Amino acid sequence: MAGRRALGRQFGWLWAAFVVSSYGTGLRFGAFPMIAVLVLHSGPAQVAALAAAGRAVGALVAVPLGPWVEFRRKRPVMVAMDLTRFAALLSVPAAYAFGRLSFAQLLVVSVAVAAADIAFRAASGAYLKALVPPEDLLVANGRFESTTWTATVVGPPLGGAAMGMFGPVTTVVADAVSYLLSALGLRAIGGTEPRPARAGASRLRAGELLEGWRYVLAHPTLRPLFFNTIVVNGLIMATEPLLAVLLLGPLGFAPWQYGLAFAAPCLGGLVGSRLAPRLVERFGQHKVMWTAGVLRACWSVGLAFVRPGVPGLVLIMVVQFGLVTCCGLFNPVLATYRLDHTPTDRVVRTLTAWSVSSSAAIAALTAVWGLLAAVTGPRTAIAVAGVLLLATPLLLPRRGNAPLETREQAASLT
Predict the structure, then answer these.
(1) What DSSP designation does 304 have?
(2) pTM to 2 decimals?
(3) 8: helix, coil or strand?
(4) Over the stretch 349-398, which tens digit does the pLDDT of each residue have?
(5) By CB count within 10 A, which of 68, 273, 315, 318 is most buried?
């Protein structure tokens, strides 16, 4: 079966590094807001600012990293980003131990981690494209997607238990160590990586900062996919704080019920990512991506009808399972399609532009939906986001293009 295909020792180390850092991130889920509330006695406005500002400023900081990473060896950059996240996160328990932890430090660490996340993902996408044959990219991306959702299922419950038993900074230490282990795994890959050739001027030019956006916006299929993904991700993420307020407040759900409602359905992401190679082999890449993209927009509106008690809990889990399954199917197909249609010398800048735009959109829409909820109430704001999501399939491309390498081979034969 495609999903069981052996991709070699080097990919095995890359995947192992991704596994350990993903589980570390899953364990740390919710740690910063909890530290802000329990240790620093921050109010709701500060907690919201920590989430939004860290993501937004981190995205801004990451903008010049794309062109810088593009023309460097990707594995050393990935190791450097892992070590950056290790050092930044480890500063939190160190400051806590000496009684010096502050809200400003949490904010700075959030920015550093967010920027390093974007640079790491962009470099890893380019490295994966060079490491794995084109026909195996979907299998590789499916394994990464499966790992992400498995870590989301397991990590937060274990992290919550660890924080309850050992204190609020425990999972921050665990996540920091996971990045150190990830860096060691990347070093173990071995082999030589050629330094990318740079045409033209040797120094970074201001115009190169926008090269990723220029390429995406000029591409006939990447452009609609770009707008579709940033809008969908932004609307989904913008309602997460509102769901927490609604479920834990007026509807009276217990914290364990809230965690169960969103952790258990993540098994759907594992299902979707495992199905992706088989479905693409049978129906084709574009058809699977378009169908999954349409279906993932149809679920969130159901969250506006949640009620107290067991029926409400069941409704949330059904809606979330459907949404996550479609996302688990869509995401690896999109990641593979994006790599297939991006030249090697533009992969990092394209992925950086994509991640920066997504982070900025999530931060902006989270702030807007917070204001909307303050005026209309959380349920109405969630319903508005769900209705808008129903329109997002209009942004999906109706046709797919052949992969870039295929088009280049065809052109060379004519």
Answers:
(1) G
(2) 0.80
(3) coil
(4) 899 889 889 988 888 888 888 888 888 888 999 999 999 999 999 999 88
(5) 273
